[in-house]
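step=encode ok
step=design start
structure_in=
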């Protein structure tokens, strides 16, 4: 028995060594095409390197990250009359006149600019940032990701459940639903840009005016709320079919016998959905959520085509810094931050949905 056990352990060790040897080519390729370029980006983010420039590169440590991420909260004090000491008020609105953000935010050793103002407990505060455009791009991207992925998951699940049923023309329906996803993103963005035109040339203004809503001059791409709604609408239209396709693949792995057993036990359709479909669909749902969330966090083309520099996503801001300002060091720091945020979302999904468990 002892010799047999030793032979088994020896065989297991040989197999383990063989597995490591077989992994060596893959590890070398991964090192060349992924780890080394990523390391270069990390290093470049700590320099003042300029893109397409002969300027000498200097190591500046975390200065790029400090410029991108530094925030400052400052209270705006009420202004008082120099003679009476009374609080000054606006003659028209009767609101308290307060300090201007530009007067209270620090300028040295690094300049802060106004990001946002808010009121709390009767006081007025201003949030200053050394790079408010980047902070706003992070907020834009996360808002876009959360809302668009939620809508795509909800609509995609509904579509997947519909086309999973047996009905005449199901094959044609499954094929046609992929058309929006097959359209190149830049092309679909241009199509939507035409539909969003702020006069009756645009489809939406034409339809709304015909329905008696508005005067046919709604500018969907001008204000903050309508801009974000437009971006989400374009993304949901294009990528919901992809979400539906992944969920449909998961639905087809669920045996029909489970539904038959649940029906015999007296479970209605809703109960079958909650007790059978959702638990068994969780792995496919996790894959779909991870894919779409990571893709949404890297959104570039829709923002770039429809909004340009009027509103940034993290990726379009990265493009602006690299191509527009030729600031490769700062752009690299933006890329590292995007990587960290995406990595954090992926880990959160894996932990929350239990994808890392074998049960």
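sequence_out=
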């Amino acid at each position: 028995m002892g010799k047999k056990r030793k032979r088994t352990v020896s065989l297991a060790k040989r197999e383990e060594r063989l597995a490591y040897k077989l992994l060596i080519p893959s590890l070398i390729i991964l090192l060349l095409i992924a780890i080394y370029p990523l390391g270069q980006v990390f290093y470049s983010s700590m320099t003042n390197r300029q893109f397409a420039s002969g300027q000498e590169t200097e190591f500046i440590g975390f200065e790029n990250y400090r410029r991108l991420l530094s925030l400052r909260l400052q209270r705006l004090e009420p202004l008082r009359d120099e003679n009476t000491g009374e609080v000054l008020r606006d003659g028209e609105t009767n609101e308290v006149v307060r300090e201007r953000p530009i007067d209270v935010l620090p300028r040295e050793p690094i300049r802060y600019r106004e990001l946002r103002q808010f009121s709390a407990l009767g006081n007025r505060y201003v949030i200053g940032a050394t790079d408010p455009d980047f902070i706003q791009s992070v907020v834009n991207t996360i808002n876009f990701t959360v809302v668009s992925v939620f809508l795509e998951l909800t609509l995609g699940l509904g579509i997947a459940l519909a086309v999973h049923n047996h009905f005449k023309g199901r094959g044609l329906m499954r094929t046609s639903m992929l058309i929006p996803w097959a359209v190149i993103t830049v092309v679909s963005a241009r199509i939507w840009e035409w539909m969003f035109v702020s006069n009756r040339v645009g489809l939406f203004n034409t339809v709304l005016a015909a329905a008696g809503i508005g005067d046919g001059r709604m500018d969907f791409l001008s204000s903050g709320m309508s801009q974000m709604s437009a971006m989400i609408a374009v993304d949901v239209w294009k990528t919901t079919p992809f979400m539906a396709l992944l969920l449909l693949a998961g639905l087809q792995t669920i045996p029909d016998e489970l539904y038959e057993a649940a029906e015999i036990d007296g479970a209605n359709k809703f109960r079958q959905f909650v007790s059978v479909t959702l638990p068994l669909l969780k792995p496919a749902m996790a894959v779909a959520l991870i894919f779409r969330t990571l893709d949404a966090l890297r959104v570039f083309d829709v923002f770039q085509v429809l909004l340009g520099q009027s509103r940034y996503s993290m990726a379009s801001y990265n493009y602006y810094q690299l191509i527009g300002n030729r600031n490769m060091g700062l752009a690299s720091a933006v890329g590292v931050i995007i990587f960290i945020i995406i990595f954090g979302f992926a880990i959160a999904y894996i932990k929350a949905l239990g994808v890392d468990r074998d049960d």
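step=design ok
step=annotate ok -> Strands lie at 71-76, 113-120, 123-129.
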